[in-house]
Amino acid sequence: MTTDLTMSEHQNAQSSATRPEKDVVASRLAYLTVGLPTAGTVGAIAYAVYDGLWVSDVVLFAVMYVLTALGVEAGLHRYFTHRSFEASAPVKVFLGVAGSMAAQGPVIFWVANHRLHHAFADTDRDPHSPQPRGSGVCGRVKGLWHGHVGWLFNVKKIDWSRHTRDWLADRLVMKINAHYFSLALVGIVAPGVIGGVATQSVHGLVGGVLWGGLARIFAADNATWAVNSLGHTIGNREFRLRDESRNIGALAAPTMGGSWHNNHHARPALARTRRHWWQLDLAGEFIRLLAWVGLVCNVRHGNSSSDRAGVRS
Ligand SMILES: [Zn+2]
Ligand SMILES: [Zn+2]
Fold this sequence. Notes:
Blueprint: H1 7-16, H2 24-51, H3 55-81, E1 86-87, H4 89-101, H5 107-119, H6 136-148, H7 165-168, H8 171-178, H9 180-199, H10 202-229, H11 261-266, H12 282-292, E2 296-297
Antiparallel strand pairs: 1-2
Helix pairs in contact: 2-10, 3-4, 3-5, 3-9, 3-10, 4-8, 4-9, 6-10, 9-10
The structure holds zinc ion (2 copies).
């Protein structure tokens, strides 16, 4: 597979998208995966007011943010969804584990939803289009909310494996997928253990869990979700595409380059989202670094005719 969906996957996506019913279990899980990091962020701020913000809190937040945001943008997005490069086993494991620690859903769930997003962007079959859901300001707000996080509370009952056939035979990836909840939990507990051991204090432990774990998930999740909501609503459109994708420079750093979303929709198979030298694309640079040291190969730079197949402008 070279771009977003092969023809058969596109047909599968179309046939399975005939108004599927709500996936009650997945939708209920959203209360946990969205609610817990939100509550943890409130707790982190309250703890900082009560006991101060320690250097260990800030360092663990920053390190865990960069690791997991790269796991999402370079891993779940550019590698697992679009297959914009080939990875060695250690890199595959790192990207899968770091992406799972972002707590945005198991690999197969993330990949299937994003492939559906590209196949049906901004139509009623798009899992998270932020287009207005009703008239007036109210309809616009409803659409933005749905595109940002609301869709997670209304996940449709879809056979995710139909859109991720390329990964089903990969035992390593399926193992990471099966251990999603454990990995997400490790992403919360590990910074607490590291903080506690490094500072030999209770604050280091609690601050590590709150800042390196929960508040970090909250911040990184909202950055990713902002690409889905604001990235299809406001911002610059360099490419006139059938969808409403936009480039938002202000979100380039926190999304690791994911917010050059109009660039990405124009050429979804590429390993980079940068189209001009000044467009910051940290995930693209990370992939370049991995290629330079020989840990990934066949990086899609956009020079071949198949790379250009995604252009719809
Ligand atoms: Zn999009
Ligand atoms: Zn994409």
